[in-house]
Amino acid sequence: MKKLSRILIVGLFFISCKKEYQPRNIESVSIQEFKMDSTSIRAIHVISKSEVYFAGSRGDIGFTKDGGNSWTTEYIHYQDTISPPFRSIASNGTAIFALSIVNPALLYKITDDKNELVYKEAHKKVFYDTMKFFSDGKNGIAVGDPTEDCLSIITTSDGGITWTKIPCANLPKVADGEAFFAASNTNIAIVNNTVWLATGGKKSRIFKSTDKGKTWKVFNTPIIQGDGAQGIYSIDFYDKNSGIIIGGDYVKPKENTNNKAITNDGGKTWTIVANNKNPNYKSCVQYVPNTNGKEIFAVGKTGISFSNDGGKTWKDVSNDSYFSIQFVDKNTAWLSGHHKMGKLILE
């Protein structure tokens, strides 16, 4: 019996060793760049290595289905005079949705057949920043800066056919000067039914809901804050417990003090990492899929950085400036930037 127990223990040991992911040591990256004239692209939705959609600043919705060899761009005009400046894009699996930032906020459902306006909000303070769908494809959420004393949050439960703004009575109050940054469409992170929102400005906090936005809890962060350009610009979660936030000061992009933090308890508490070390200001952070939460990329106007230990230490791997990154798999990601798209390949 003792011999059998020892055999089982040894067998379990070797199985656990095989499952332990060994992160890569990446020194540089290969990026294929695609010029996109006269548009700034901060929002992308990745389908595959060959297919990606983007929403641009001139009412432009673009896509490729052949890995970037050719691109198709369509332009949306509201009342023939307004080209919606899009900063958010999402998909429910059957349609693409694009949301503009300024008054009036315009949310379009885009299919092969038509572009349909499904939500409009007119207010002098309206400014929507980010939008995502849950994995069920029916429930979606978009967030924006306060028009009253709470965050602007609109949701859908019918796959994006109709959208409803959550009343302030059902939401936590925000601090004066607390809002979002429309930098990369990554102020929202979703895992199963849980959603996290990351604010910035005079106050930089985490708003968390475990029931798809019906109820909320708020947690403080140690990220630099207090000024309008400071705070969290991007958030991502690998699983329900492990997450990362990044940002800094947009007007002082080379500074790297208190601009990145990680959590292991689902966002309740956050620990500053790599303080006073690069990466400096970044507008987007994303976990590399299937790497056990070890590998992370961060991009911004100051370049591209990589971590292989869950965000504790980093390497600068490219000087190329991009706003956003989204992975297809552990070796391929799409990027967006000013007048360009990019495809990142890890060998």
Structural commentary:
The protein has 347 residues and is mainly beta. It has a single domain (31-345), classed as Methylamine Dehydrogenase, Chain H, CATH 2.130.10.10. The chain is built from one helix and 28 strands. The protein has one helix at 2-19; strands at residues 30-46, 52-56, 60-64, 72-75, 86-91, 96-100, 105-110, 115-121, 128-133, 140-144, 152-156, 164-165, 178-179, 188-191, 194-198, 200-201, 205-209, 217-220, 230-237, 243-249, 260-263, 271-272, 284-287, 296-300, 303-307, 315-318, 324-329, 332-345. Strands 4-3-2-1-28-27 form a six-stranded antiparallel β-sheet, with no helix packed on it. Strands 5-6-7-8 form a four-stranded antiparallel β-sheet, with no helix packed on it. It has a four-stranded antiparallel β-sheet with strand order 9-10-11-12, with no helix packed on it. A hairpin with a 3-residue loop joins strand 2 (52-56) and strand 3 (60-64). The longest helix is centred in the N-terminal third of the chain and has 18 residues, at 2-19. The protein is globular and about 50 Å long. The chain starts with a helix and ends with a strand. The model is unreliable at 12-18 (pLDDT under 50).
Assigned CATH architecture: 7 Propeller
Terminal Cα separation, in Å? 48 Å
Shape: globular
Give the class from helix and strand content and strand pairing: mainly beta
Please provide a brief summary of the model.
The chain is mainly beta and 347 residues long.
Which tags fit this structure?
mainly beta, Methylamine Dehydrogenase, Chain H, six-stranded antiparallel β-sheet, globular
